[in-house]
Design the sequence.
């Protein structure tokens, strides 16, 4: 077997947004959100199912997978490979937008159901040392939570360093699948959950159509370009800040060697300011 990089846009949507393999998304959400008993998801309606033509022309939607469970709860599941500027604000915007779009103008607010965001990130976002963090609206003093309809969950892949032999919970096995599948040649032992096993089978690119493989390669190139663009934007912003600091120091008569040591700029760059 040869598995896809699950972090790839096409692979992620094919695996988690497949209407014919809903057990994949159900298993993933129950495991990551720790849903048990009456809260456990038994069925989902995928609101933006995987359709290859939407990706080949580069017009994919922002939200990777959007679904509603049997109780009306809505889930937004995203794979984000780079820390884009304004990412946290975009998450809040799209989650809020998903929440308010449940009812039309004039309808009663009690018809609104919880909206839960799950972001799988290939970068570090929070200061929490754990690889999964949950964010809710609550009273900062008492911890009381009276606004329960919105929740944000982040899986930070760089913080997950477990080896295959150490995996015990279904949650751990799911995160391992997302991070490491592309480096495996067979489905590891112990992946007995039907939804997780179906995910591995869906990730086997040897069973994909030529059109899917073409779209997968294209998405990989596009994601690489996005990473480079984001890194350049960060680099430019850092350089601009260094130049501002150097200009202030230079105007105050600070020696160039000290300015260079403090800002990382070369003598020529300082001279040109």
Sequence:
């Amino acid at each position: 077997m040869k598995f896809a990089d699950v972090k790839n846009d096409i692979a992620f949507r094919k695996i988690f947004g497949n209407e014919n393999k809903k057990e994949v998304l159900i298993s993933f959400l129950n495991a990551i959100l720790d849903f048990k008993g009456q809260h456990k998801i038994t069925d989902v309606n995928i609101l933006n199912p995987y359709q290859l033509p939407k990706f080949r022309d580069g017009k994919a939607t922002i939200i990777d997978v959007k679904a509603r469970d049997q109780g009306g709860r809505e889930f937004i599941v995203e794979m984000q490979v780079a820390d884009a500027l304004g990412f946290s604000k975009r998450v809040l915007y799209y989650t809020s937008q998903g929440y308010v779009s449940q009812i039309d103008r004039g309808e009663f607010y009690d018809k609104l159901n919880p909206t839960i965001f799950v972001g799988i990130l290939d970068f570090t976002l929070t200061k929490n040392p754990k690889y999964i963090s949950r964010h809710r609206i609550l009273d900062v003093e008492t911890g009381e939570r009276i606004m329960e309809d919105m929740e944000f969950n982040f899986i930070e892949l760089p913080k997950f360093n477990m080896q295959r032999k150490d995996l015990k919970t279904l949650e751990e096995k799911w995160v391992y699948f997302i991070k490491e599948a592309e480096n495996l040649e067979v489905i590891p032992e112990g992946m007995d959950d039907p939804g997780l096993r179906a995910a591995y089978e869906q990730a086997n690119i040897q069973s994909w159509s030529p059109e899917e493989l073409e779209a997968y390669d294209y998405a990989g190139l596009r994601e690489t370009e996005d990473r480079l663009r984001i890194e350049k934007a960060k680099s430019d912003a850092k350089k601009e800040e260094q130049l501002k600091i150097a200009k202030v120091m230079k105007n105050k008569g600070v020696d160039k060697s000290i300015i260079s040591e403090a800002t990382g700029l070369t003598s020529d760059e300082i001279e040109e300011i």
